[in-house]
Amino acid sequence: MKTHTRPLALAAAVAGLLLLAARPLLASEPQRPLELVQTIPLKGKAGRLDHLALDGKGRRLFVANLSNDSLDIVDLKAGKLLKQIPGQGKIQGVAYAPDLDRIFVGNGADGVCNAFDGKDYSLLKSFKLPDADNVRYDPRSARVYVTHAEHSLTVIDAKALKSLATIKLPGPPEAFQLDAAKPRIFLNCPSPGQVVVIDTAKQEVATSYPLEGAKANYPLALDADNHRVFVGCRKPPVVLALDAKTGKEVTRIDIPGDIDDLFYDAKRKRLYATCGDGFLAVIEQEDADKYKLIEKLATVKQARTGLFDPETGRFYLVLPAHDGKEPEVQVYQANP
């Protein structure tokens, strides 16, 4: 006797499709603001890592491996550690000059700012600056700015490799940012707690904004379009939003503890805060005066420095050695 297997199979398939159509669709998981897309292992001693700089064109990440006393160069395309430059005592700050292909690092223990060639990593010049710390490069003027003791910000001609001026500050300096719209710098002085405004054309302090009810102000970020200065504080753990014109506090946002880096994402209207208590915090900007914490991504203790690249929407977070692992770089992609 013949069996009609083909018609039966077709009927079963149709019935299955009808069942799928009748089943309610499951709600998709909402897209997270930051998605981990890559992990790159580093090498070195256990302990804290410090600040980073990026060569976007060459796809290199420069890491101040503080506990290892080395400048680490990471090949982002290959996803591996390319080279370590040893002998950088208490390396803290790092900046990259893409037009000159030069790397500038601030070494606290050595008391120097070293300038390296970006091609062969040879040392070009060493500037004596006691307890050299944060370093920034201004492509408009081809100048490097370095904070150091005692209460100073030194200006270096990045092309000629010579010191131009030293600006005296009202207190020990921490993080600072260059205003892309005007010739000025906003700089944190935790003691006393204030934000110092520096006129880079005159190379002098123009004014300062005292902070009320918040101390230990370390990182700083800018929103030039909305004239906002964002100040990361540890006591209490908050981000302050200040009016850039007056210094008046607009609002404050509670965050996890031990913040050390802060970045503003102008495209997505967000702030990214790296907190040593073991979290990467994401703050949403509803408008110039309204903000809310929308995500706390768990990291590890002392993972408190990172770097945001506005061109690619990539966020780079450095993790110290933990749980038997070497130190590493975690790469996140900002969504959408």
Overall helicity = under 10%
Coarse structural class: mainly beta
Measured on Cα atoms, how large is the radius of gyration? Answer: 24 Å
Query: Distance N terminus to C terminus?
Result: 61 Å
CATH superfamily of the largest domain: YVTN repeat-like/Quinoprotein amine dehydrogenase
**CATH architecture level-2 label of the largest domain:** 7 Propeller
Query: According to CATH, what is the topology of the largest domain?
Result: Methylamine Dehydrogenase, Chain H
Strand order of the largest sheet: 1-28-27-26
What does this structure look like?
The structure is a single chain. The protein has 336 residues and is mainly beta. A hairpin with a 5-residue loop joins strand 8 (112-117) and strand 9. It is globular and about 45 Å long. It has two domains: 31-41 and 213-336, YVTN repeat-like/Quinoprotein amine dehydrogenase (Methylamine Dehydrogenase, Chain H, 7 Propeller), CATH 2.130.10.10; 47-168, Methylamine Dehydrogenase, Chain H (7 Propeller). The strands form seven sheets. A four-stranded antiparallel β-sheet has the order 1-28-27-26, with no helix packed on it. Strands 2-3-4-5 form a four-stranded antiparallel β-sheet, with no helix packed on it. The protein has one helix and 28 strands. The termini are far apart.
Which features characterize this protein?
336 residues; Methylamine Dehydrogenase, Chain H; 5% helix; four-stranded antiparallel beta sheet; 2 domains; 1 helix; mainly beta
